[in-house]
Every structure is written in C-alpha cells, then in structure tokens.
Write a structure and sequence with these properties.
The chain is 12% helix and 39% strand. It is mainly β and 103 residues long. It has a domain of 72 residues.
Amino acid sequence: MLFLRLSILLNTLHKNCTQIVPLFVFPMTRYQPKVNDYVKWNSSTGLIEGWVYFVDTNYITIEIFVKEKPQCKYTKVEKHKKVHCLVCCYPWAWEELEYVKSR
C-alpha cells in the first residue's frame, strides 16, 4: 500500500516534466522469520539469540538452548531425546529481530 501511494505521488510530481525520467521505487521490506534462521532479539528483558524453531502468523518460537532429556523410569522407549527451551516472539516485535544466518 505504501509502495502504491509513493508511486502515485512521484508520478504526480513528475507529470509536468518534458523529459521522461525513470523512477525506481522499491517497497520497504521487513524481515519475515523462517524456520532454521538464527536471530538476535534485543528485547526489553535483554539479548535473546537462537534458532527460529516454529513460525506462525500469530507468533514464532526461538530456541535458546537444548539439553539432554533425563532418563525416565516410567517409559520403555524414549521418543524424544532432548529438552528444548523456547521463547515466544509476537509479530509486533519481529522488527526488533536481527537475522544472522540460516542452517
């Protein structure tokens, strides 16, 4: 929407020109988190960094650490081997995320 309004404004400003001037206007891009992106987040609680583990339109989760799951005496077969610590990040805070790399 911003891109369209800006294009209309610039075309209006240059309509009286006798010479055709190419106008290159690029839309502002905002980082969209993806699974397996490594991000840094300067939140109000401090610096959080880790891998994007889950992405949805309502929130993403950032995996900040993983540890081995303790042995359970009640299960015969361990389905999950690790414990994942995840932090939720909501869309209004995605602009505070800094993309580092992907795996």
